[in-house]
Amino acid sequence: MSTLKLAIPSKGRLKEQTEEFFAKAGFRIEPLGGARGYFARIPDLAAVEVRLLSAGEIAAGVIAGDVHVGVSGEDLLREQAGDLDRVVHLLAPLGFGRADLVVAAPKSWLDVDTMADVDDVAARIEVSTGRKLRVATKYVRSTRRFFTTEGVGHYRIVESVGATEGAPSAGVAELVVDITTTGATLESNGLKILRDGVILRSQAQLAASLAADWTDGALAALRGLAEGIAGSDPSVPSRFDGFVAAVRKLRG
């Protein structure tokens, strides 16, 4: 029997919400190997192998084709994939894990409220100091794409390895691009979100890989999942059909 590899979050609130989502669709997820195991199963779908991974590992696995389908944040998928639509189909937004990827500047920069203002300040900094505006982030690809779209130059990325929101107060960067649910942490660190600085409104997505080995059995198992999920999201069957068409086109 061909197996569909489904990856879900291994811990925390995302794991709980993912299990609740599938339970509402009629699919109970049972852990294998105890609470600390890395595999699970769906009793009603014997052809589905469930793997428990971190959200970042899931995004990487879906993009690489190591798993067929995974639940991960859209922010991680878009950051890791580069051109997401070439390698991944988003089958269903899941309605949880919501967060915004945003550009934030110091509150003390009273004349900076938009990306156009950032471009002006960046140009002035380079003229007056000979250095580029520094932007701290873990989302390097997403930041570069957005800044290019907004016509912002004269900056350089400082890759963040710790708490990104603390970079300006530490003197490491002037701006940050970070993920936030309420904006409270940014505000408590003296930062403000720019009026047009929302890069992405992210949420957990059920994402299918175009790079995976899609046998007829794996596609049939995915159809079973899609039919169950359709009860809460009627758009899923059409997205599934679009994905199958894309897979068949790749097969030639």
Report what the structure shows.
It is built from 9 helices and 12 strands. The mean pLDDT is 94. The protein is α/β, with parallel strands linked by helices. A 7-stranded mixed sheet has the order 2-3-4-1-5-12-6. A 5-stranded mixed sheet has the order 9-8-10-7-11. The longest helix has 16 residues, at 236-251. 38% of the residues lie in helices and 28% in strands. The chain starts with a strand and ends with a helix. Helix 2 crosses helix 3 (74-81). The protein folds into 2 domains: 2-96 and 202-249, Periplasmic binding protein-like II (D-Maltodextrin-Binding Protein, domain 2, 3-Layer(aba) Sandwich), CATH 3.40.190; 98-200, 3-Layer(aba) Sandwich (D-Maltodextrin-Binding Protein, domain 2). It is elongated and about 65 Å long.
Helix content: 25-40%
CATH class of the largest domain: Alpha Beta
Number of strands: 12
Work out the count of structural domains: 2
What's the architecture of the largest domain, going by CATH? 3-Layer(aba) Sandwich
Main sheet record: 7 strands, mixed
The coarse overall form would be elongated
In short:
With 252 residues, the chain is an alpha/beta fold. It is built from nine helices and twelve strands.
Fold blueprint:
Layout: E1 4-9, H1 12-24, E2 30-32, E3 39-41, E4 48-53, H2 55-64, E5 69-73, H3 74-81, H4 84-87, E6 88-93, E7 99-106, H5 115-129, E8 133-137, H6 140-149, E9 155-159, E10 175-180, H7 184-188, E11 191-202, E12 204-209, H8 216-229, H9 236-251
Parallel strand pairs: 1-4, 1-5, 8-9, 8-10
Antiparallel strand pairs: 2-3, 3-4, 5-12, 6-12, 7-10, 7-11
Helix pairs in contact: 2-3, 8-9
